[in-house]
Design a protein that fits this description.
The complex is a heterodimer of chains A (about 280) and B (about 325). With about 280 residues, chain A is of the alpha/beta class. Chain A has one domain (about 5-95, about 170-280): 3-Layer(aba) Sandwich (Rossmann fold), CATH 3.40.50. Chain A is built from 11 helices and 10 strands. In chain A, strand 4 (about 65-70) and strand 5 (about 70-75) form a beta hairpin. Chain A is globular and about 50 Å long. With about 325 residues, chain B is mostly helical. In chain B, helix 5 packs parallel to helix 8 (about 190-215), helix 10 runs parallel beside helix 11 and helix 10 (about 230-265) packs antiparallel against helix 12 (about 285-315). The radius of gyration of chain B is 31 Å and the shape is flat. Chain B starts with 13 loop residues before the first helix and ends in a 6-residue tail after the last helix.
């Protein structure tokens, strides 16, 4: 198993109309170890999504580089060697599955074909595609919805398809960009538990973005708190509420543990401190 | 923080409430007849007549305040009938001379005459056949060239740089303005007619295909790349299919432009065709043929548009989802 490493990464955007340069991310050094469930939490504008897009290979950093195991994701080797060798940068790839907040399913395909899409791109046979997709649809609880058009599904079910689709390619890690952000509170809790089960069964690295403090504490084995202007990591916590849940299977009990509540207050005061400091919202 | 206000919560169980209600209803079942709904008054004839034009019942799931909701077919039919009726009355009472506006009856009679005996050395079927041949061959040629070029313009900067100035320059020109040039270059045969219509269809089709490419959600493209897609696979499996609704809209707009340009194309050296028939009839002040020709062109264009809309529903059922 390989780890994902972020070396001295900064992302700067040129200011609008000759204004000041915006620093979206500043000097990020960070490693995700195999099997970790990392959650990024922070106010909007703190660069969470930029960080995820870098890991996915959708954007290039201004400085620094990212690697997954021995291969470069972004920023390499242009920075490392001063050469323009695009073919050594993998960019986005099937070793990193991405689950988006919304708009990412293909509305002309049904649930099964959406899930099997990645396998189709790689030229697997129809039988193999359907078998493997069915396996992951079972995992996310959609075994009875294979033939449904995705646009007829509820938001929660669409996200289940998104998760199953990202898993069928057997990636090394999942990048989840606020996957539960648009869902109602009840569906959200169901899918939190589902994601933890998926994590436990597949042992994949997870990078999960959220706005919800409770969700972050519940899901994370490592929690990073980010702060805006410039976007940076300010705090890091190692947590094991997810392990407690996986043993006792009672999310409400976990979320009402005194340690959980104390932790929530601590994190909330950090975030509120940031907002008071930052001034703008 | 110590608060002095005591915590107070109350709870009501709806299941228990329902159980109590059920037991009460069972007791009351004997005298239920007394509580039937009040009688509804029968609608009068006028109310029934007006209800034809009503918006119709609110459909389940229809959202409040969305502009232009409700049925409009009855109003459209009534508008058409009133216009035809007005036309009939105006000619019957001779408000207008038949030279300017012949009666509906005369137009229908002329339709029959042209259909069976012909006008300007060709029957109506021949005129229609020639025009449809011109419009549809131009349409097919445009679909085969404009759609790939438009897609290419969307995905490739070189193609965009090459074609954008050409299309944007000639697109706003009226076909009549470049008709003489087309005739000088290509002569007065069929080729120049088809090319003129083709040019009119090409620009809207190419631009729609390009816009369709641009309308793809970046998340879908990113998702495909993250599932190991190559650039070509992204174009084929994501961009092309996503552009389908706009391409079909472009085809609809394009064929509309085709019919508009038809009359211009048949202005010079045509022996048959609906546009030619109308122009020829106008020269000899046969107004009923002019009106008949206009109506035939309108009906054909409308029928084809209905066919395209049906195709849209079948081909891109996810449109707007």
């Amino acid at each position: 198993m390989s780890r994902l490493q972020i070396h001295d990464v900064s992302v700067r955007y040129p200011g609008m109309n000759g204004g000041e340069t915006v620093t979206a991310l500043s000097d990020i050094n960070f490693t995700i170890e195999p099997g970790e469930f990392v959650v990024a939490l922070g106010a909007s504008g703190c660069g969470k999504t930029t960080l995820l897009n870098l890991m996915a290979g959708f954007i290039q950093p201004s400085d620094g580089y990212l690697t997954l195991g021995q291969s470069g994701i972004a920023g390499l080797p242009r920075v490392a060697c001063g050469l323009d060798l695009d073919d050594q940068i993998t960019g986005p790839g099937k070793d990193r599955g991405v689950v988006f907040q919304k708009h990412a399913l293909l509305p002309w395909l049904n649930v099964l074909d959406n899930t099997a899409f990645g396998l189709k791109l790689q030229g697997f046979s129809l039988k193999e595609r359907n078998e493997r997709s069915a396996e992951f649809l079972q995992l996310v609880g959609l075994q009875d919805f294979h033939k449904h058009p995705v646009y007829q599904l509820s938001g929660g079910m669409q996200q289940r398809v998104g998760i199953a689709r990202a898993l069928t390619n057997d990636p090394q890690m999942l990048l989840l960009d606020e996957p539960l952000g648009a869902l109602d509170a009840l569906t959200r809790e169901v899918l939190q538990e589902l994601l933890l089960d998926v994590w436990k069964q597949t042992q994949k690295m997870m990078f999960f973005i959220t706005h919800s403090v409770e969700e972050a504490l519940f899901m994370a084995s490592r929690l990073i708190i980010m702060s805006p202007r410039p976007g940076r990591i300010t705090h890091e916590f190692s947590l094991n509420f997810n392990q407690i849940f996986l043993e006792c299977r009672d999310a409400r009990k976990v979320k009402s543990l005194p340690e959980f509540i104390a932790m929530r207050e601590q994190v909330l005061s950090i975030i509120h401190g940031d907002e008071a400091e930052g001034g703008l919202h | 923080m110590e608060s002095t206000t005591p915590v107070m919560t109350t709870m009501r169980s709806y299941e228990r409430d329902a159980a109590i209600k059920n037991s009460k209803e069972n007791v009351n079942k004997g005298n239920q007849k007394a509580m039937s709904a009040p009688p509804v008054a029968k609608p009068t004839l006028a109310q029934r007549f007006l209800s034809i034009f009503a918006a119709g019942p609110v459909k389940p799931g229809e959202s409040y305040g969305a502009p232009g909701q409700g049925k409009s077919l009855a109003i459209s039919i009534a508008t058409a009938l009133v216009l035809i009726g007005f036309w009939y009355i105006a000619t019957y009472l001779q408000w207008v001379k038949p030279l300017f506006l012949p009666s509906p009856g005369a137009v229908v009679a002329r339709f029959w005459e042209v259909a069976t005996e012909g006008f300007a050395n060709a029957t109506l079927l021949e005129h229609t056949g020639w025009s449809m041949m011109r419009v549809f061959s131009a349409f097919i040629l445009a679909a085969l060239t404009a759609i790939p070029i438009g897609i290419f313009m969307g995905v490739n900067r070189v193609a965009r740089g090459l074609f954008d100035p050409i299309i944007e320059f000639y697109r706003p020109l009226p076909p009549l303005a470049y008709l003489p040039l087309v005739i000088i270059w290509l002569g007065i045969g069929e080729v120049s007619k088809v090319v003129l219509i083709y040019l009119a269809i090409f620009a809207p089709m190419a631009l729609s295909a390009r816009a369709g490419v641009k309308s793809v959600a970046i998340e879908q493209i990113h998702a495909a790349f993250s599932m190991g897609a190559s650039r070509w696979q992204v174009i084929r499996h994501i961009i092309l299919i996503n552009a389908m609704p706009e391409i079909l809209t472009g085809m609809r707009i394009g064929i509309g432009f085709g019919w508009t340009t038809l009359v211009a194309a048949e202005m010079v050296a045509a022996q048959a065709g609906l546009g030619f028939m109308v122009l020829n009839a106008a020269e000899f002040l046969v107004t009923d043929v002019v009106i008949m020709g206009i109506i035939v062109i309108g009906i054909i264009a409308y029928l084809f548009d209905m066919l395209m809309r049906y195709g849209e529903k079948k081909l891109v059922p996810w449109k707007g989802r």
